[in-house]
Design brief:
Keywords: Methyltransferase, S-adenosyl-L-methionine, Transferase. This protein has helices at 4-17, 20-32, 34-41, 47-53, 61-73, 92-95, 108-114, 117-123, 126-130, 138-143, 147-153, 155-168, 170-183, 199-207, 259-272, 299-311, 319-328, and strands at residues 45-46, 77-80, 87-90, 189-193, 212-217, 231-235, 247-251, 281-286, 333-338, 344-349. By secondary structure, the chain is α/β, with parallel strands linked by helices. Helix 14 (199-207) links the parallel strand 4 and strand 5.
Length: 350
């Protein structure tokens, strides 16, 4: 008989080997619309009701039971066995992923983007990538072009990427609305660099009308930008030029780039913003690895970092790495405000 350490090690190994089925079962649930079905029903559903509403073939009912069992195991669905027939209900996790949800926190588009075949394929190339000296990232190895090049050529990918970024903006908007009085005190103008369709800028402009907002992004994004009288879109490349403003906003921009390119971007930001005395600063919305709320583990940050390594040249940085970037870019100081879970707001001053 194997000792307890070996038994535990085998169990952990199985979790790692088959762990990808956890993500794939979640993808399957989103593809089938399981959370939407329960949400639209307005109350918990039996397996028979769910099978009927999803319009699945009769032969798939026992398989649906098995899918619901694992979804319940990792908290996506609440399974109630108190009555004669098991019933299923939503959990806080699945409520984040209902595609028809009206409200601030809807991460269905964000999850859908990362479950897209284009994104999944690059992770299968990671081993091959490690053994090559080329500067190409796994995404480029899988597709022959970078994520940004593909998004510029493929309108479908561009749309699901922009939808994902709009969706993820909700992680910051509530905090910004509640604390923006301090964050934007004395601010008259803001440039949202790489701001896509302007999700955050529109929230800022609506809640703080004294702040004139501009979105800077690549020309192909402009077609998805809906005109807003409070927010202006400027096509351009942040490596070449950033319009002048009191505040430059960078949401999930720097984690896409190498240290060398981040320094180039930050120096452009420093050229664009007002003096510190006039309220000038760069506002960075990113993770600070190792700095999380007490209820959140470090693992999501490390998984996010691995995703960035697969898809881009970027990295999720700890405070020491952030500090080094700011110093080398010519900034004098910074302040980290922790917000939701493993995401933070960093104020950087010239």
């Amino acid at each position: 008989m194997k000792n307890n350490n070996e038994v535990q090690a085998i169990a952990e190994l199985w979790k790692l080997i088959f762990g990808f089925h956890k993500s794939m079962s979640l993808k399957c649930a989103l593809d089938l619309g399981i959370a939407d079905a329960i949400c639209n029903h307005g109350q918990p559903m039996t397996l028979s009701q769910l099978h009927s509403v999803l319009s699945l073939p009769p032969s798939r009912k026992p398989h649906l039971f098995r899918l619901m069992r694992i979804l319940s195991q990792f908290g996506f669905i609440f399974e109630n066995n108190a009555s004669s027939e098991v019933v299923y209900d939503l959990t806080p996790l699945s409520r984040l992923l209902t595609s028809t949800k009206v409200g601030s926190l809807n991460l269905f588009p964000f999850a859908s983007f990362h479950f897209d075949d284009v994104m999944l394929k690059s992770s299968l190339c990671m081993g091959d990538w490690f053994m090559q000296e080329e500067k190409k990232m796994p995404f480029e190895l899988a597709h022959g072009v970078s994520l940004w090049e593909m998004a510029g050529q493929d309108s479908k990918l561009s749309k699901i990427f922009n939808d994902a970024m709009v969706s993820s903006s909700c992680l910051f908007t509530d905090f910004i609305i509640k604390n923006g009085g301090n964050i934007f005190k004395g601010t008259e103008s803001l440039v949202d660099v790489g701001g896509g369709v302007g999700a955050i800028s529109k929230v800022i402009a609506e809640n703080f009308p004294h702040v004139k907002c501009t979105v800077l992004d690549l020309p192909h994004v402009e077609g998805d930008f809906s005109n807003d009288r409070n927010v202006k879109f400027v096509p351009g490349d942040m490596f070449n030029y950033i319009p002048p403003a009191d505040v430059v906003l960078l949401k999930w921009i720097l984690h896409c780039w190498s240290d060398e390119n981040c320094i180039k971007i930050l120096r452009r930001c420093k050229q664009a913003i007002s003096s510190r005395e006039a309220g000038g600063k760069v506002l960075i919305l990113e993770a600070v690895v190792g700095s999380t709320s007490s209820m959140i583990s470090k693992e999501p940050q490390l998984l996010f970092d691995l995703m960035m390594m697969n898809a881009t040249e970027g990295v999720e940085r700890d405070e020491q790495q952030w500090s080094k970037l700011f110093t080398e870019s010519g900034f004098s100081s910074y302040n980290i405000i922790h917000t939701i879970g493993f995401m933070s707001i960093i104020e950087v001053y010239p």
